[in-house]
Amino acid sequence: MADTKFSKVDFSKYFQPPSLKDARRRRREAVQIINDFSIPEDMNTIGKGKNYLIETYGCQMNEHDTEVMAGILEEIGYTETKEATDADVILLNTCAIRENAENKVFGHIGHLKTLKLERPGLILGVCGCMAQEEVVINKILAKHPQVDLIFGTHNIHRLPQLLKEALFGKEMVVEVWSKEGDIVENLPQARRGHFQAWVNIMYGCDKFCTYCIVPYTRGKERSRHPEEIIQEVRELARKGYKEITLLGQNVNAYGKDLPDMENYGLGNLMDEMRKIGIPRVRFTTSHPKDFDDHLIEVLGKGGNLCEHIHLPVQSGSSDVLKIMGRGYTRERYLDLFHKIKDTVPNASFTTDIIVGFPNETDEQFEETMSLVRECQFDGAFTFIYSPRAGTPAARMKDNIPMEVKKERLQRLNTLIDELSAKSNAKYQDQVVEVLVEGESRKNSEVLSGHTRTNKVVNFRGPKSLIGQLVKVKVTDAKTWSLDGEWQKEAEAANL
Ligand code: 5AD
Ligand code: SF4
């Protein structure tokens, strides 16, 4: 039973739940470019003297969406706080990729109920990928009436209007469009970093890997126009940013949907990035199927394009890959891998792997282990398969016992640790370029940053180095990071 203190509405009257079935459809309608973000007049300064907190779960796409929502809230006067107890608006920007991500969010919504009872004026919102799922909305409606506002990934630009309804209306506000999606340009962005920035190049995914919820929650693949991206990156360069990461769920499909731009792809865009005076350019996430020769050739030119490729493989077995709907075989992945490695010899490689997919046999798992050995990855994100309601794989029997899944994951992780240590050992006594990102999490006396190949480097130096590119000599290569000494003289010589 819902808590009576909060049960204020009969939702069924005006709420059309999102539909995963609808979200699956690709109608080939033209993508609308929306440029008319607006703030209702009476909302212009509504947040003055008030605070907001956005808690972000999941991928970089969500991190960047949070920057946009923060930008919108700051535009109407709100100030960021780190303390939930000081916040007048709390938004949970959620992730739906695996069940444990969702459980974490529900746990948190439960905790926030006490805060909401203490501060009835607090606006509590849920957005991001979970908001696109009808099961989630139904659960919030039934069990968490303390939530004031739910909005989807296609509704972010409507935040001022939605917040207005939540502040002045009596009902829970729910707006989730189950649409293929448009592109909204010129939204405010409160970037969290002053020298690293994310830049969306495309939205959505049309790959429909059978286990994945993303194509349903994020809509169809749609690319921003190159001119918009180039202009944004030039502006970041002008402001002194040192590193940008081009973002998309499947960046290798970039450009395919652009009208009148046949054959314009990620390779062309990266070539444009090389001409911009920004020291480091990265991109994520890649899909092996769409990774073309032109892109490899452009990456081979180096310059500001960083030598780190995140190339999710998911499984080393062609049979499993087929059922996952990945669109490539083990052999094609390996061919691509070696082609990139030959063209960009110093590149580091990382990957994503799922263990325990329905029917995965011991032999098929061994194929994953052998592929990992062959590729000698620098690192990997490894996951136990998690059925997502509405996806084709969720209709298959999840028949691998949890102990087997856990055992496979553990063996895989041990191998990944070994390979990471081995690849790090190659850096021993080398001088590397590090973008200094801040104090190390473990020790505020130590600075921390990444190499171009995305290795974490820790070293001692003055705080004034934060935000700068410096030279560090590696003195101790560990499993997951490199310790080093700042090469002050090298810096002086470069001046
Ligand atoms: N179960 C487990 N892992 C998943 N991923 C995506 N969907 C699932 C799922 N249902 C993993 C993939 C993907 C990464 C972002 O998350 O490895 O590359
Ligand atoms: Fe999900 Fe596959 Fe699209 Fe990646 S490519 S977001 S795993 S459907």
TrEMBL record:
Residues 191-422 form the Radical SAM core domain. It is found in: Cytoplasm. It is an enzyme of class 2 (transferase). [4Fe-4S] cluster 1 binds at C59, C95, C129. Pfam families: Radical_SAM, TRAM, UPF0004. [4Fe-4S] cluster 2 binds at C205, C209, C212. Residues 425-488 form the TRAM domain. Residues 50-168 form the MTTase N-terminal domain. GO terms for cellular component: cytosol. Binds 2 [4Fe-4S] clusters. One cluster is coordinated with 3 cysteines and an exchangeable S-adenosyl-L-methionine. Belongs to the methylthiotransferase family. MiaB subfamily. Catalyzes the methylthiolation of N6-(dimethylallyl)adenosine (i(6)A), leading to the formation of 2-methylthio-N6-(dimethylallyl)adenosine (ms(2)i(6)A) at position 37 in tRNAs that read codons beginning with uridine. Its EC number is 2.8.4.3. One of its GO terms (molecular function) is metal ion binding. Keywords: 4Fe-4S, Cytoplasm, Iron, Iron-sulfur, Metal-binding, S-adenosyl-L-methionine, Transferase, tRNA processing. Its cofactor is [4Fe-4S] cluster. This is tRNA-2-methylthio-N(6)-dimethylallyladenosine synthase. Monomer. It catalyses: N(6)-dimethylallyladenosine(37) in tRNA + (sulfur carrier)-SH + AH2 + 2 S-adenosyl-L-methionine = 2-methylsulfanyl-N(6)-dimethylallyladenosine(37) in tRNA + (sulfur carrier)-H + 5'-deoxyadenosine + L-methionine + A + S-adenosyl-L-homocysteine + 2 H(+).
